[in-house]
Amino acid sequence: MELDEMKQAWARMDLRQDGMEALLRQDFRERRLDRAHASLRGALAWQAIGIGCWLAFTVFVASFWVQHRHVTHLLAIGLLLHAYGIAGIWSSVTQLLLISRIHLFDAPVLVMQRRLAQWRRFRVVSTFVLGLPWWFLWFLLPLVWMTWWSGVDVFVSSAWIWANMVVGAVGVVFSLWLARRFAARSIRSPWLQRVADDMSGRALLRVSRQLEEAARFERE
Amino acid sequence: MTSSQQHQRFTALLHEHRKIIFKVAASYGRSSADRDDLAQEIAAQLWRSFGRYDAVRAKFSTWMYRIALNVAISQARRRPEAGRFEPLDAHHLETVGSDEPLDEIDERLTALHAFIARLDPLNRALILLYLEDRSHAEMAAILGITRTNVATKIARIKQQLRGQMVAAETTGA
User: Any residues with CB less than 8 A from the CB of A204 and at least 6 apart, and which?
Assistant: First the structure.
């Protein structure tokens, strides 16, 4: 059968619309109308809250390292956390801009799919870069806060801190191994599946293929 | 325009062009439930974007195709391993103005649907627009490629289909 014959068959075919239209109208009237606008406002508000939190975090760590700039290890920890905070602000602002470019879905298909893939790639990379340091931040942040609050340098008991640094390093390696091991399997929880895909590099590979596909579609 | 007037205008346009939603959902949804869900998702996204629709810049059908295809492709990509395509069933199909026996049309539509399912999401969008008899200019505006590119791709898909048919006949013989 030729494509033109298929076109004729398609023209003579119509989709049974009664049931589908009733479903569409009912659902649209009852739920989606308000929810459609609410979900967009929610996504943008969530990103705005994220930027606010990162700003507060960065201001706090800046005041910390400025206050302890004469103590080398506190200055180093403060500067590292400051860099982490700036990365967080950059990630949230970029995601806010990317979401505002894609939320209406009314761009030409190729442009839109490329933007979506770029946003997904950015989300995967920033989740990875901002997520893994938590193996160290979970104990560094409370210590920084205690030092700032009490004025006493709690980092002096270095053996305990080094032990946790080693645990953190092992944790990073272990989470990467675990993600690679489970990424190929089907995980029941969509959230865990997403984490495994992001951490193992599988999501990045998938999104890179989508970008290649878009480029090929445009080129050929 | 008040919110109520905007809603009324939108519902009227949605009703007028509803086939676009159903056909996109039928081409990208994997199962019957999936197709219904996709149709609802497309309608929700259309309403979300309606405030920015400008009739001077694009025809309503062009704007609607863009959104419907973008939603459908995104959903297909979110669930790449969601299972094989189920063919359109009697629940979704009816023939219009034809004297041909339903079986013959069904056979061709099943083959067509199987062919569409094998295409990647972007080429599937192209073939859907071709089957819907859209002009090359409108296809180019919806997809974001040049008219020449549209023509080249259609020719290539025709060739691919011909190859598949020959292969199927050889295997069947």
Answer: A121, A124, A125, A198
